[in-house]
Amino acid sequence: MDQIIVRGGNTLRGEVEVSGAKNAALPILASALLADGEAIFRNVPDLVDVATMLKVLNVMGCEAERLTGKNKHVCRIKVGPGPINPEAPYDLVKTMRASVLVLGPLAARFGRARVSLPGGCAIGARPIDQHLKGLRALGADIVLEEGYVEARCKRLRGATFAFDMITVTGTENVMMAAVLAKGRTVLENCAREPEIEELAKVLNKMGARISGAGTGVITIDGVDSLKPVDHAILPDRIEAGTLLAAAAITGGDVLVKHAVPEHLDAVIQKLREAGCEVRAENGGIRCRGPKQLNAVDIQTREHPGFPTDMQAQLMVMMTVAKGTSVISENIFENRFMHVPELNRMGADIKVQAHTAVVKGVERLSGAPVMATDLRASASLILAGLRAEGRTVVSRVYHLDRGYERLERKLRSLGADIRRVKA
Ligand code: EPZ
């Protein structure tokens, strides 16, 4: 297993390009199942989770591949004319819960699906009850057996359905199912992330009739068939936010190219409150970190609130801020696993249920630390950039699920960072 070694103290300066959005690429790749033919997706980040989704599509009988060389960020997916086996096996779903995003497309297109229940993960139980409730509302017959979801339906029928709570992939799954249903579907209490708008844009390019994506109410008028598309995926706002945080914590000055400011309003506001100078520039976002960060309080919320996927990164900044910061994680029940590792680096963080109280300290000291989940691993690297001495982050396979060679991007900005084979 690889490790990442960081020697702290360098100030990050320069320009860096953000990759395509993981959390848009995953549902969009699954949406290819909705149409026969060859789809082309560009700006697809080279991540382990994307490779897993391509595997899931191949196992079903699609031809799903990442091109090579200068086209390595292009994925080609050919569906049909051979038969599709509508099953997502446990050994793949257990490695990436977002594989459940094939459920809606399979039910809508083939009238049946057999998808392994994803099970929990490090950050929480993450059930998919809302996905199933939404599909049932569209007329799917859903049975759970032997750890699998079995969905059967003739043709799905449009319906009005309100989610009991806001769920990103739940909204995506049911929206994808509804595009081929008969009649109108109105989904209420939907998630509003930019990735959902991006998915709806792709589906409408395929011939779907969706309005309201990005708001709490999405209306879908079902069509009889869709066609494959060629689409370039939007930039990853969480990777962009992580790179801005790297500039903030090193007192640096970094331009994150292709980052979209309006996708990061809540994060930019907190960076500014913490003393950073943040502004849109040349089709990206520039962040200048202050000499001394100020403590700010954070409440994670559904979009457009402060994103839970940026909680760990902002917490690291707060460990060396002036004052005390109160951070509440309101989305997932177990997303403070980076705290013990940060405290081993000299941070002063106390956790009480869903709230972490972070008392700013003078300095962090490098240490061997262990990544536990995707965003926690990024936060440990950010801590290493600031800490005195050497930090060795192990289990970086967590990092590779959601960041494309983060250490190279940081090194190009002046960080003393390298990956070694353990
Ligand atoms: C998506 O996960 C993202 N993943 C996550 O990003 C992100 O943290 C999360 O949304 C919240 O923004 C992808 O888009 C692939 P949810 P998702 O359904 O859809 C509960 C990352 O780091 N819930 O919005 O799985 C659930 O337990 C990853 O890139 C139910 O109870 O999250 C959670 O507490 C991590 N029943 C809350 O809702 C359901 O049926 C929000 O979950 C669905 C969700």
Can you characterise this structure?
30% of the residues lie in helices and 25% in strands. The protein is an alpha/beta fold. It folds into two domains: 2-19 and 235-421, Enolpyruvate transferase domain (UDP-n-acetylglucosamine1-carboxyvinyl-transferase, Chain, Alpha-beta prism); 22-232, UDP-n-acetylglucosamine1-carboxyvinyl-transferase, Chain (Alpha-beta prism), CATH 3.65.10. It is globular. The N and C termini lie close together (5 Å). The mean pLDDT is 97. It binds ligand EPZ. Ligand EPZ binds at residues 22-23, 26, 98, 124-131, 165, 167-170, 191, 308-309, 331-332, 374-375, 402.
What would a concise description of this structure say?
The protein is of the alpha/beta class and about 425 residues long. About 30% of the residues lie in helices and about 25% in strands.
- The total of helices stands at 14
Whole-angstrom Rg: 21 Å
* Bound small-molecule species: ligand EPZ
Mean of residue pLDDT? 97
Class inferred from helices and paired strands: alpha/beta
Percentage of β-strand residues: 25-35%
Trace the largest sheet across and list its strands: 22-23-1-24
Domain count, please report it. Answer: 2
The biggest sheet, with number of strands, parallel, antiparallel or mixed sense and barrel status, is: 4 strands, mixed
CATH architecture of the largest domain: Alpha-beta prism
CATH class of the largest domain: Alpha Beta
What is the CATH homologous superfamily assignment of the largest domain? Enolpyruvate transferase domain
**Terminal-residue CA separation:** 5 Å
CATH topology heading of the largest domain: UDP-n-acetylglucosamine1-carboxyvinyl-transferase, Chain
Counted beta strands? 24
Q: Which stretches are poorly predicted, pLDDT < 50 over at least 5 residues?
A: none
